[in-house]
Design goal:
Blueprint (H helix, E strand, L loop, with lengths): L12 H10 L1 E6 L6 E4 L2 E4 L6 E5 L2 E8 L12 E7 L4 E7 L4 E4 L2 H12 L8 E2 L5 H7 L5 H7 L12 H4 L6 H12 L1 H5 L25 H9 L2 H11 L4 H16 L4 H15 L3 H6 L1 H24 L21 H14 L3 E3 H18 L6 H4 L10 E3 L5
């Protein structure tokens, strides 16, 4: 069984042959049958011969496992980790039955197994990485560098809801978050999850919910909180050394850890970053247009993947679709109001960058067709490309 759409990018035979040669191998020892194993957008139910994956393209990946009960219909918490593979590299992990996760081997054992892989001793027990779905993964991880992963990942690298008990006690802010919490509390595995003495969360950037200034008048403070451009600028300068791609890398890291790794902490971080960006009106139109073109493209593919998984979920895929239920389609989700306000800013601007307008339209169409949301304001309804009052589209250099 595999999950994850593959129509995004078909790979030509030459490129596939090159990946057979340059692709890395992930050798996984002793993984029990019926365990849900995932790499990137692909999810499999482990069979009796499974010993891992071959032809894994070089670059960042997310590997995650979800052990099942003997009957195969109950799952332990997902445990996932990021890794970055080099061309022709062999990586070896072994299943720890007690902790129900993949662990590293000693260096000596890793060398021994790596040599066996290079002699093709495990070749018929390795599943090929589905190259048809590699295009999907690249869209979800385009800003995810090895340095970004190392900066954000927890000590030990393991991402799992079982280590996030502090999040369970936080007051949920919306119906969707409340339902996520309830799903976790009620699920059979949450009660049996190992209690950890120390919290091992990711090192996410702290995103303030609002602007606070001592020497600013009430009216100015309201304006600063309505348009969070100044907050975005301070976060970029303070936390990302002004590098926009680092922020986008964290957005992708959090989405992957939430979507594939079922991390509630990651969902909260993804929400915080999306909320900050969608609450800016000056930045997308004037000061950070290029960042917002990249953000809208990234956000579009995240939502497209998330919705696709909701619609493609099978009953046996319960381990990897825990978080996506009908709550995503609710109009009280934070995305509805923020998206509507953001689209108003872009579509009603007198001058707007062509790429920004194009991706905003694509995103709006996706939300309307997938959720059935009405994101039109009356003013926006009347906009016609030939209308003299329609926004002026200009192409900006470097976007």
């Amino acid at each position: 069984m595999a999950s994850g759409g593959g129509a995004a990018a078909r790979m030509d035979p030459e490129a596939a042959t090159e990946l057979v040669r340059k692709g890395s191998t992930l050798l996984l020892l002793d993984v029990p049958q019926r365990t849900l194993f995932g790499i990137d957008t692909q999810v499999f139910s482990v069979g009796p011969k499974f010993k891992g994956m071959k032809m894994v393209p070089p670059g960042p990946h997310f590997v995650y496992c979800c052990s099942s009960s003997r009957s195969g219909n109950e799952f332990a918490p997902t445990v996932g980790f990021f890794l970055t593979t080099q061309p022709s590299e062999v990586m070896v992990r072994k299943w720890d039955a007690q902790e129900e996760r993949l662990i590293n081997l000693s260096e000596e054992e890793e060398i021994r197994y790596s040599e066996a892989v290079r002699r093709f001793e495990f070749d018929d027990q390795l599943g090929p990485y589905n190259l048809d779905s590699y295009g999907d993964w690249k869209q979800l991880s385009s800003y995810l560098s090895q340095s970004a992963i190392e900066r954000l990942e927890p000590i030990g690298g393991q991402i799992t809801i079982a280590l996030e008990s502090s999040w369970m006690d936080k007051a949920p802010q919306s119906d969707m978050e409340r339902r996520l919490m309830e799903q976790l509390r009620e699920s059979k595995f949450a009660k049996n999850a190992p209690v950890q003495a120390e919290r091992r969360g990711c090192y996410y950037t702290s995103i303030p919910a609002s602007v606070k200034h001592k020497n600013v008048s009430g009216g100015d403070l309201t304006a600063l909180n309505l348009d969070k451009t100044s907050l975005l600028e301070s976060v970029l300068a303070k936390n990302y050394q002004g590098q926009e791609d680092l922020l986008l890398g964290e957005l992708q890291f959090a989405f992957i850890a939430f979507m594939m790794g079922q991390s509630l902490e990651a969902f909260m971080q993804w929400k915080a970053l999306v909320s900050l960006l969608l609450s800016c009106s000056e930045a997308p139109l004037h000061t950070r247009t290029n960042l917002f073109v990249k953000f809208l493209r990234t956000f579009y593919y995240q939502l497209k993947h998330g919705f696709q998984r909701t619609q493609d979920s099978r009953s046996e895929d319960v381990g990897s679709s825990l978080f996506l239920d009908e709550a995503w389609f609710s109009r009280d989700i934070f995305l509805y109001r923020l998206s509507k306000d953001f689209f108003t800013v872009v579509f009603e601007a007198p001058v707007v960058d062509g790429d920004l307008l194009s991706w905003a339209r694509k995103l709006k169409t996706l939300l309307e067709t997938t959720f059935g949301w009405d994101l039109e304001d009356n003013a926006v309804n009347l906009i016609d490309e030939d209308d003299e009052f329609a926004p002026v589209v200009v192409e900006m250099d470097g976007s």
